[in-house]
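Slide 14.
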Amino acid sequence: MTESNLANLQAGDTLTPMVCAPVTRTTLALFAGASNDHNPIHIDTDAARIAGLPDVIGHGMLAMASLARLLTGFSDPRRLRQFNVRFAGITRVGDQLTCTATVTERFIAGGEQRIRLQLQAADQKGDMKVAGEAVLAI
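Slide 15: predicted structure.
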């Protein structure tokens, strides 16, 4: 899907899914630095175990950022009018997220054509990690 195809999207259409690289400890350490979220459950195995987890876990915002990459991979970020998510599951080291988007509506708002997208990031087993919605101007 390219930005030039935005105008042709209709309810029910899906964007090409984006498969992310598996989450690694390096990914988590780099994301901690980039996001300034140094919560030890994301980068310190001992701290994660003290918190009752078997190992470190991914930042929720890392999964959300993957959905944002899906959107900005085919559309100019300036077209984004709304982006909401809810965190639905824990992302673990080794998980490989697949991000998907389905058009649920075409409408006019603020004098411009827009599409509403249902978003999802799920792991390799199909377990949802993040679900949400985005609105893009077309």
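Speaker note: The chain has a mean pLDDT of 94.
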